[in-house]
Amino acid sequence: xxxxxxxxxxxxxxxxxxxxxxxxxxxxxxxxxxxxxxxxxxxxxxxxxxxxxxxxxxxxxxxxxxxxxxxxxxxxxxxxxxxxxxxxxxxxxxxxxxxxxxxxxxxxxxxxxxxxxxxxxxxxxxxxxxxxxxxxxxxxxxxxxxxxxxxxxxxxxxxxxxxxxxxxxxxxxxxxxxxxxxxxxxxxxxxxxxxxxxxxxxxxxxxxxxxxxxxxxxxxxxxxxxxxxxxxxxxxxxxxxxxxxxxxxxxxxxxxxxxxxxxxxxxxxxxxxxxxxxxxxxxxxxxxxxxxxxxxxxxxxxxxxxxxxxxxxxxxxxxxxxxxxxxxxxxxxxxxxxxxxxxxxxxxxxxxxxxxxxxxxxxxxxxxxxxxxxxxxxxxxxxxxxxxxxxxxxxxxxxxxxxx
Length: 404
Description:
Blueprint lengths: L1 E5 L9 E2 L2 E2 L33 E4 L1 E9 L5 E7 L7 E6 L4 E8 L4 E7 L5 E2 L19 E10 L1 E3 L17 E3 L5 E12 L8 E15 L5 E15 L12 E15 L10 E14 L4 E10 L19 E11 L5 E12 L14 E9 L5 E9 L6 E11 L2
Antiparallel strand pairs: 1-21, 2-3, 4-7, 5-6, 5-16, 7-8, 8-9, 10-11, 11-14, 12-13, 14-15, 15-16, 17-18, 17-24, 18-19, 19-20, 20-21, 21-22, 22-23, 23-24
């Protein structure tokens, strides 16, 4: 199978491991942008992998918001941030091993602030307290998962080994109290790659927030609705502008992660738009003298989430390959880093030869900057938007990289 999207050109801690705190975080050096500073100490300004005081960072990335009402009605919003317009903050206190994650973006209808302070907020796959439905077990090394949840007039059960099996009363495993007329449950999962795994000054992160509401009608039938948020971003210690090279070239390689909402046939599919994660690698080629860059992404698509009988025929098949290529300009005055767009994006899987309609493609974006001393590393966010009528294709992700 091959699904192709061609696009018109336009010209960024801290970590807690499963067995105990494993810290990483640090404020940006003076003159940084996205990296942001925190803590009033005089410690090493580069302490992303081994922090000694509170650090706060801003992220570069994007978020999605999907509301699903009983009967299939939907409202979808999304937005990609820039280097100078983030909306994302990540704070870490190494003394208490406490994370605070905040993402506020009115354009994407996303408003989240979650503090992970209980050691039990650290979770992983393989036990009864796995991350919630909507988070995949990524294969990128040293990805850490933090999760917190609350419920009103009910309870959220541990994730079933089969999230869509008979043990799950609904996709969020929320059980409404028998005597209650209405209730709700909300769970927020934050994940990130442990700094120091591949990169020393930048890392990627993402989140999923699932909000489930249940109420009984006059006949006692439970009416369900969902508010679902997803996002991915890069964050770290931004390189001061004066420390970025003005000559020479560099190739940066590192991981990328993306969240996608996809449906290529809104006309016929009921529960139409399903989220899917994409995980893979990014290669960023930079010409510091010419102030230009090229970005190449390749990854593997995870299967769709929140399937409850609506069908998966109009999603991207699990295991499909994702590829995208783009380019742009480095301009610290105008962008605070670099900015660009994609020239091509595609999905492919064995056994078919299907090409998406090319006539109505709408847009894309790449936003990023450099991290660490002398621009040793790179990170940013990206978005790819399909534009065919009666389709919803929106891919939003983050990438990092380091020079060898």
